[in-house]
Amino acid sequence: MTANIESARLPSMTAGHRAESHVRVRYRAPFALRCGALLIDYILLVLILVFSTMIARLMGGGARMAGGTAEKIGIGLTVIVGILDLGVMAGLTGKSIGKLVTGLRIERVRGGLPGIPRALLRHVIGYPLSLLPLGLGFLIATVGTSGRALHDLLAGTVVVRRYAPVTVPARKVRPKP
Predict the structure, then answer these.
(1) pLDDT tens digit sequence for 144-174
(2) Considering the domain boundaries, does residue 11 fall inside one?
(3) Does 126 map to a domain?
(4) In whole angstroms, what is the distance from residue 164 CA to residue 5 CA?
(5) Among 33, 110, 111, 131, which one has the highest count of C-beta atoms within 10 angstroms of its own C-beta?
(6) Across-strand partners of 164?
(7) What is the number of domains present in the chain?
(8) Nearest-angstrom CA–CA distance, 91 and 22
């Protein structure tokens, strides 16, 4: 259930002929695949927290000691990995770890990489806003024709699945009289 959301422009006609060209067509990402990518990102972050908590408990803190050094390091490491994954990596490559695994990519609406500020806006501010009204911000992607969720609309981005190369055959164009 992927829909064509945008295609590149064809080169202009020259000397009455159109050269054979390749056009890249973007397809929006399916909602289930987007959920899977988000789940992978959050499992990674939660695993860091769980691992640091287990180390804190094994070091003798017991169940009563909260906020030990190992837990503080784990929380700090989780924040750093979250910023690197959801901000820096997503901004510079268009892919977080979850999107890399699922083959998705974040792009600006008009094409191109989102950039770090836009990726941080999308993930740090946009995701909580999408969750607030009972997750309806995420469900907008399922009913909207563009396939964009609330955080995508806020950041001016779109999540695409793949590019499909389309070859446009050469043809002769009749000159105007």
Answers:
(1) 888 899 999 999 999 998 765 556 666 666 7
(2) no
(3) yes
(4) 12
(5) 33
(6) 25
(7) 1
(8) 27
